Each structure stands twice: as structure tokens, then as C-alpha cells.
Amino acid sequence: MSVEKNDRRNFIGMSFGAVAAVGGIFSLVALKKTWDPLPSVKAAGFTTVDLSPIKDGELYQVEWRKKPIFILKKTADMKNDAKRDVVVGGARYTVCIGLCTHLGCIPSYKGGQFVCACHGGIFDVSGNNIFGPPPRPLDIPPFKIDGTKLVLGETGPEYEKLVSQA
Ligand code: FES
């Protein structure tokens, strides 16, 4: 074997090793990011949401403890629900865990209802089960009201009141 061929082989070998090493480092960084809890989870599992920028009729979605949380600001023509509405500054909100109470699919919000594509379950604008297999309304996560902010993961009097009425 000539010296030139040997050099080329060494160069290709070293290049391949370098690419593999860089790829490995990127994979480790990506894995760490996946495993790391969100900053909000790090803060004892609380997630704070400022409700003031949410517009009438808008569905806002956040993640709390790896679960989707739906926050819908009701419009004036949407039916009130004293047992489920979260009232902040005169506005009414539907706040619920966005997991179907049948088998846990994530419903989508369509035409003023939460529709679960998995088995056709339907929840009304307040999260009450109104059609199909879901056995109960969408669950309300523990929350506390702090001014215009909703603190998910803490139990405040507003949450206690809703739970006692359910
Ligand atoms: S999981 Fe939603 S209807 Fe079955």
C-alpha cells in the first residue's frame, strides 16, 4: 500500500470520527432538553397565565404538568355556567384540562364546542359532556386567581367553590 493511500484512509477515518463525535454531542444536548422540566414546572409545578391579553371568544392553550390546559374567554352570547365559569375582572372563562374524559384524546375547539375526534365525544363551551362516550365534563385543574393572573397548580377559593358545586 502506498503512503498516499494510507494518508487518505487516515484522513477519511478521522473525518468520520469527528462527524460522529459532533453528532453525538448534539444528540446528548437534545436529550437533556427533552428530559429537563419546563421552567414553570421547576417552580414547584405552578404555571402562571396572564388572562388580560386574551380576546373574547379566543381559546388560549398552555401546558401544565405535561397536560394541555384550555382557557377560553367567553363572549357575551355564550351560555354562562355558574358551576364551571371562572370569573376574573367581570369576564368569564372556561378553564379545563384538554384531555377527553373518555380515553384521553385532545379535543379540538370547533364552532363553540370541544370535539373529540377519537370516538365522537362532544363537550359544550363550558366543557360539559353533551354527546358520545365521555362520562363526565372536562376536568378543571387546580387554580388560584391572582389579580388578572391564573396560577395553575395552586388551590384558591375560586377553585374550591367550583369543586364544591360540581
Ligand atoms: S377519547 Fe374522546 S370520545 Fe373517546
TrEMBL record:
Pfam families registered for this protein in UniProt: Rieske
Q: Which UniProt keywords apply?
A: 2Fe-2S, Disulfide bond, Iron, Iron-sulfur, Membrane, Metal-binding, Oxidoreductase, Transmembrane, Transmembrane helix
Q: Which cofactor does it need?
A: [2Fe-2S] cluster
Primary place of residence?
membrane
Please indicate if the UniProt record lists Metal-binding as a keyword.
Answer: yes
Q: What's its membrane topology?
A: Single-pass membrane protein
Indicate where this protein resides in the cell. Answer: Membrane
Q: Does the keyword tRNA processing apply?
A: no
- Quaternary form? The main subunits of complex b-c1 are: cytochrome b, cytochrome c1 and the Rieske protein.
User: By what name is this protein known?
Assistant: Ubiquinol-cytochrome c reductase, iron-sulfur subunit
Species of provenance: Campylobacter geochelonis
The lineage is:
Bacteria, Pseudomonadati, Campylobacterota, Epsilonproteobacteria, Campylobacterales
